[in-house]
Amino acid sequence: MPRPAILDRETVLGTALALADADGLDALTMRAIAQRLGVTPMALYRHVGDKQALLDGIVEHLLMEIPLPDPALPWTERLRAMTAAVRASARRHPAVFPLLLQRPAVTAGARRVRDAVYAALRDAGLPEPEIARTERMLASFVFGVAASESGGRFSVDTTVIDSDLEWFGDLLTTALSRHARDGA
Amino acid sequence: MPRPAILDRETVLGTALALADADGLDALTMRAIAQRLGVTPMALYRHVGDKQALLDGIVEHLLMEIPLPDPALPWTERLRAMTAAVRASARRHPAVFPLLLQRPAVTAGARRVRDAVYAALRDAGLPEPEIARTERMLASFVFGVAASESGGRFSVDTTVIDSDLEWFGDLLTTALSRHARDGA
DNA sequence: ACCTGAACACCGTTCAAGT
DNA sequence: ACCTGAACACCGTTCAAGT
Question: What is residue B27's three-state secondary structure?
Answer without folding.
Answer: coil
